[in-house]
From TrEMBL, chain A:
It comes from the Eukaryota. Gene3D superfamilies: DNA-directed RNA polymerase, insert domain (2.170.120.12), RNA polymerase, RBP11-like subunit (3.30.1360.10). This is DNA-directed RNA polymerase RpoA/D/Rpb3-type domain-containing protein. Belongs to the archaeal Rpo3/eukaryotic RPB3 RNA polymerase subunit family. Residues 21-228 form the DNA-directed RNA polymerase RpoA/D/Rpb3-type domain. Keywords: DNA-directed RNA polymerase, Transcription. InterPro entries: DNA-dir_RNA_pol_30-40kDasu_CS, DNA-dir_RNA_pol_insert, DNA-dir_RNA_pol_RpoA/D/Rpb3, RBP11-like, RNAP_Rpo3/Rpb3/RPAC1, RNApol_insert_sf, Rpo3/RPB3_RNA_Pol_subunit.
From TrEMBL, chain B:
Keywords: DNA-directed RNA polymerase, Nucleus, Transcription. Pfam families: RNA_pol_L_2. This is DNA-directed RNA polymerase RBP11-like dimerisation domain-containing protein. It is found in: Nucleus. Residues 12-83 form the DNA-directed RNA polymerase RBP11-like dimerisation domain. Belongs to the archaeal Rpo11/eukaryotic RPB11/RPC19 RNA polymerase subunit family. The keyword rRNA processing does not apply.
């Protein structure tokens, strides 16, 4: 096939890798491929998020749809997303899209009894499947226990109650941003800087220092030993 | 959907439904790498409509075959990127754990 000889296969090199953050280099390819990768990461990687909320009791200051909207935006651990089916494609359930193959059920019960304000957080959401739970953002070192309470959904005063049942389904970012797994994805070109060493030799030390300082972000440095 | 002429299979416009720049720009890039292609471009008639028109003109080969080969090349490239990425992550992890153990 004639096209094969012109086919370029890109190379990947990882710069940094943390639990929630990756920085890597992509070489020997075009911006269109990098952009396609970026667009797919934002919009077409499937995740699980709460999609249907049945509220039994709500006497909080926020109205029902407000709370339902906030619940939808809570990130859930979605390793199971690849093996789950989309609710609309599921043939195992009786048409209401709530069987175990295509959905995960959550419930939340909170009532404020004390005089102190009760924070209803994502940690109060109980899942029917222990692999799909609200993401835990707490610091593993555990400095300050007050910062590890999870995402606050609503605050309750004495006597206010919230009881609801929520169904989480698989979806993609294109349908609604709550299903987008990525916070931000960016790419940029890496500039290739070549310094003409012969010309550098002709500059005096003061001229070299002013040249180093002239760049708005500190890119160059003078080696004190060799003064290059 | 292909809009072409019956007499001249080497030039045609293909209409892709439910697609956008994500696929179209990548396919355009792989088609341009193919030496059989003399012209390749894509347009989106209206942003609210999820439809993409890809125009391919070749040096004689049927445009449909060239487009199929371009899509195959794109798939190969994506598989390659995936395996390279997995390998790079594995290497990075072993390298960083070695550095920590030193």
């Amino acid at each position: 096939m004639e096209g094969v000889s012109y086919q370029r296969f890109p190379k990947v090199k990882i710069r940094e890798l943390k639990g929630d953050y990756v920085k890597f280099e992509l070489r020997d390819t075009d911006a269109s491929i990098a952009n396609a990768l970026r667009r797919v990461m934002i919009a077409e990687v499937p995740t699980i998020a709460i999609d249907l909320v049945e509220i039994e009791v709500n006497s909080s200051v926020l109205n029902d749809e407000f709370i339902a909207h906030r619940l939808g935006l809570i990130p859930l651990t979605s390793e199971r997303a690849m093996s789950m089916r989309f609710s609309r494609d599921c043939d195992a359930c009786d048409g209401d899209g709530q069987c175990e193959y295509c959905s995960v059920e959550f419930h939340l019960r909170a009532k404020c009894i004390s005089d102190q304000t009760l924070d209803v957080t994502s940690k109060d959401l109980y899942s029917s499947d222990h692999t799909v739970v609200p993401v835990d953002f707490s610091d593993p070192a555990g400095y300050d226990s007050s910062e590890q309470k999870g995402i606050i959904i609503v605050k309750l005063r004495r006597g206010q109650e919230l009881r609801l049942r929520a169904i989480a389904r698989k979806g993609i970012g294109k349908d609604h941003a709550k299903w987008s797994p990525a916070a931000t994805v960016t790419f940029m070109y890496e500039p290739d800087i070549h310094i003409n060493e012969d010309l550098m030799e002709t500059l005096t030390l003061e001229e070299k220092q002013s040249w180093v300082e002239s760049s708005p972000t500190k890119v160059f440095d003078i080696d004190p030993v060799t003064q290059q | 959907m292909e809009h072409g002429s019956l007499q001249d299979p080497s030039r045609a416009t293909f209409s892709f439904v439910d697609e956008d720049h994500t696929l179209a720009n990548a396919v355009r890039f792989t088609l341009n790498q193919d030496p059989r292609v003399s012209f390749c471009g894509y347009s989106i008639p209206h942003p609210s409509d999820a439809r993409v028109n890809i125009r391919v003109q070749t040096t004689g080969d049927p445009a449909r075959e060239v487009l199929k080969d371009g899509c195959q090349n794109l798939m190969l490239m994506c598989h390659h990127v995936r395996s390279t990425f997995d390998k790079a992550v594995g290497d990075y992890r072993t390298n960083t754990t070695e550095m920590e153990n030193d």
